[in-house]
Here is the input.
Amino acid sequence: MNPNTPRTTFTEPAREIPVLMSTDIVVVGGGTTGPFAAISAARQGKHVVMIERFGSLGGNLTLGLNTKPSGALLGGLPLEIWNLARSAGGAGDDYMALTKTGGVKIASPCDPEIMKILLTRLCVDAGVQILFETFVSAPIIEGGAITGVIVESKAGRHVINAKVVIDCSADGDMAAKANAPFVMGSGGSEETMQPVSMYFTMSHVDLQRLADWSRTSDDIPARAIPDTAEGLGYGLWLTGFNQSLRKFQEETGIKLQRDNITLKTANGLMYVNGTRVQDVDIFSPAEFSAAIVECYRQIEGVAKFLRERVPGFEHAGIGQISGALGVRETRHVLGEYTLTGDDTLQGHSFADSIAADASALDIHDPKGGDVDFRGLPPYEIPYRCMVPLKIEQLLIAGRAISADHTAHARSRNMPACMATGQAAGIAAAVAIDEGVTVRKVPVAKVQAILRSLDMPLHASEIRDDKARSAQETIQA
Ligand SMILES: Cc1cc2nc3c(=O)[nH]c(=O)nc-3n(C[C@H](O)[C@H](O)[C@H](O)COP(=O)(O)OP(=O)(O)OC[C@H]3O[C@@H](n4cnc5c(N)ncnc54)[C@H](O)[C@@H]3O)c2cc1C
Here is the structure.
């Protein structure tokens, strides 16, 4: 190569890749969704390998410091894990948040470190083989079906054979690399996507002082303020600061990118959602990195704002910055059915529903406006949303399921991601047992197993106590 004319491509020599292991089911990504898929499949007696590029489980839920499912957890493994977290001191009581448009039932935030421990333990107890610090770089496609994946680690490049692959990478990495069709964000000629953000925590916040001030402030339009000091540990949730943020920016010249900030507590620590970068192509390494750099700049500004302008933060400091950029929206992998905004707003019923979900609608304006956060009645997620077109033996669970931009604003929430993970794990196991493809799986058998786990499948099945919380959101 001439050093003065850098090459634009390089032909990698073909090489033989050793097989690391063979398994029934590979789960790609051990984030919010992956562990639910892996545990569910392993509990059905299947050998499962879950591959995660980072060194801990939970993804956006834990590493991303999100902690709070925006909607009640209605049953099955998600509720089981939340109840375990509660008994370990890693979550509190669910609460009702008041917003400009009504009430939103919110599952208690969790302590992300306790959640990492729980997810890991439950995976190990179920017999899941976890491969940490391993990146899945490509699917292996033979005869139109996925038959394994190629992974990269410090040990080099390896193959893992699988009968079924569940893509829980959030970005539909396996589907895209297998040339399955997908839509980015809203699709269309003016393709837009919800912006990216980076959470951080603040320590040494005087929660009581903040709660007392918030009760009387007209700058906090959306709130949940517990009555007891004990309740503050997991139950304080505040969204607003619009007027004071505007004033702060005018006075200091510090440019922040959001109209509002959301604060929430978990285990007595304050979690801050206050950064935003729009129009990021997260598949461009340089743009992705620039977004992280910009979030770090904004984090300094937001922390300064809180310390200088919000009672209770006078002695606070930045505790921890999320180890990963929070990405809200990328690919929606086109499936046998695409969930529409209308389906989720009107609560359409589906014979092949694998979960009733009570997640809020949560749209961060791709053009930079305010957040549309609304409680709505439960809706249903059909199995077909997880079955991609064109590729056999691949299931999609979590953020990248087949949903349009508006439907995704509900299905991207963590209760829905966990529910699709659970259903995908069970469906993969049933398909193997029945000797059929995941496209042809007898959905009634998957539904029967889900029902045995006390997972409501249809909005009409939600029991009285759960319906009450869903009913309250109807008034929103
Ligand atoms: C800033 C922000 C705030 C949010 N707030 C809320 C909220 O308050 N409530 C709510 O319910 N939802 C919220 N959401 C949405 C929700 O957190 C996500 O949509 C959800 O967690 C996505 O789950 P997932 O499993 O699809 O993805 P993730 O949790 O991101 O998991 C994907 C996992 O796959 C791994 N991975 C990816 N690619 C590969 C690969 N090729 N090889 C190996 N591993 C790979 C990743 O490391 C990660 O662990 C928020 C999202 C963001 C970004």
Q: What stands out?
A: DSSP finds 13 helices and 21 strands in the chain. The domain at 19-92+108-189+329-474 is CATH 3.50.50.60 (FAD/NAD(P)-binding domain). The two ends are 64 Å apart (CA to CA). The pocket of flavin-adenine dinucleotide is lined by residues 28-34, 51-54, 59-61, 66, 68-70, 135-136, 168-170, 173, 197, 199, 273, 326-328, 398-399, 412-414, 417 (CB under 6 Å).
